[in-house]
């Protein structure tokens, strides 16, 4: 079982266009594009599709989230430009056998598969690494000076980048929408201060501290994988 905390603020926006979704070993944040038709409806539709238990892989869940946004585009006048960003993860494990001195021993390796499209982000803190508990960005923004170069719901520029990293039980994984990570704050310092706290407390404390500065919707998801 993964351990999850989530918190969000609407900022000064008229609508909340961020959404959060999870099912068993996977989770995601969605950010509907502000001012582009039904951004809130697009994000909620994508989140519902992502959580569908019928989809067993992260790739399938993201693909269906994409098509859920396309369906929103087809259902309303002025909604044709509805689209959004996603940052998603799936926790996986693989058992293997090692042999020393002729004795077999089962070993379980944990991994984190991440996928993203747009400018929502995935971060990780890995205390066992030699450099210590540093906040490391695992994704990269699909963004240039003119806007997003990839996003869910786009027929022409849709893609989801993927990568897989090894995971330890104490590692902390964060998903953020741009309304949080584009603020002039030191997210790493905030995370370091709260590192030993429960996931929900970390998420809610950080959102509470930035709410007065937030103009955009801002969402933070904090996770740890299955514990021994």
Q: Topology, please?
A:
Blueprint: E1 3-9, E2 18-23, E3 26-32, H1 39-50, H2 58-75, E4 84-100, E5 103-117, E6 121-125, E7 135-137, E8 143-144, E9 147-148, E10 161-167, E11 172-176, H3 178-181, H4 187-194, H5 199-210, E12 218-224
Antiparallel strand pairs: 1-12, 2-3, 3-4, 4-5, 5-10, 6-7, 6-11, 8-9, 11-12
Helix pairs in contact: 1-2, 4-5
Describe the structure.
This protein is α+β, with helices and mostly antiparallel strands and 228 residues long. It has one domain: PPM-type phosphatase domain (Phosphatase 2c, domain 1), CATH 3.60.40. Helices cover 24% and strands 36% of the residues. The chain is built from 5 helices and 12 strands. A hairpin with a 2-residue loop joins strand 8 (143-144) and strand 9 (147-148). The model has no long low-confidence stretch (mean pLDDT 88).
